Amino acid sequence: MTPEFVVSLAKEGIIMVLLVSMPMLGLGLIVGLAVSIFQAVTSIQEMTLTFIPKILAVLLGLLYFSPWILEKLTTFTYNLFTNIPMYIK
Known about the structure:
about 90 residues; mainly alpha; single chain
């Protein structure tokens, strides 16, 4: 294992983590921004108003994107395990 190989493997792992987490983080960001604008317009400063819509959006996004996430993670893990003999050299 060369240092370049380890760095490229770590890079692929980080890219996979970012790719898999972006839909839920994006939904949380969009809903949080919408709730913040709503709070600023109506002058309602209730703390629980920010958490519940974000949690619901992230859970719905997880339900919607879970087949795609599972396929991406399964493919990455399969490629990782099938290339173990190459990693040992």
